[in-house]
């Protein structure tokens, strides 16, 4: 149960905390660049990308609404640094966020998937059954479009806390109220608190910082943290999340209201019918697919995950009691191990093709 004594720290408290300079880990990519995608689709739209690791197993991670490459840092470290001789991990800032361009336009999940395909082509990841794709939330919607467009190139598809069509409300009035909640002006401090409550169970937010920061001495390709070079712990899981959000929003041009709203439109208007999802699953291969959803998810309610599982009938369906919207943060150690085990199993299917 949530405690009655927890107090969300202020922005000043967190920015003055000794751990604040090390909130975003200095994980150095093996390759990176800015690719001009969508030249024939109203662009170019420059997409910032990084590859961590040099291993033969190619992993594509697709982030959700308002996420940036650093949002994957727990997975980037696990797969691309601690296991960099086994994995090559491709991460990127979706259009509208981070170091990528943020054009004012009608964004769609299919257009964002085509951005990713062009980056895959650019880095040479073009082989049959070569790429293990994993997407969370909006990233899972983009991953669905990716799988519809290039199913033969996917070695596996993992859809985390996402939906073929988000249905969180029973009435149009409720839907409008939820949308307004995303865009109504509020203080930076309250905005981060409200976002955290949508993404994570309150018990996890109030708990002591459970992260496992890297060390330049033990983590391959990890540089020192700013300042004295040390990676430190925060007082709570919420404070670490708050620090990462502040770091993102204070980096010039990385987070804009325009980019956020354009991505939000793409998420709200994503539509995949059960028939389309079934055809996608046939093309990729259900035995290569994972769908994971938590019963405690309030951002994309669990009923959405149930419908997705019913339509796809994936080889691996995981319903996690009490889990919130972001297992790659909330339960990152477990989530990393689950994905690692699945990638090993799916590689065997690939070898048998």
From TrEMBL:
A Pfam family this chain is assigned to: Abhydrolase_1
Keyword Hydrolase attached: yes
Segments of this protein annotated with the region Disordered: 207-226
MF terms (GO), sorted A to Z: hydrolase activity
Span of domain AB hydrolase-1: 59-170
InterPro entries named in the record: AB_hydrolase, AB_hydrolase_1, AB_hydrolase_fold
Keyword annotations of the record: Hydrolase
Domain of life: Eukaryota
Matching Gene3D superfamilies: alpha/beta hydrolase
Record protein name field: Putative aminoacrylate hydrolase-like protein
Originating organism: Hapsidospora chrysogenum (strain ATCC 11550 / CBS 779.69 / DSM 880 / IAM 14645 / JCM 23072 / IMI 49137)
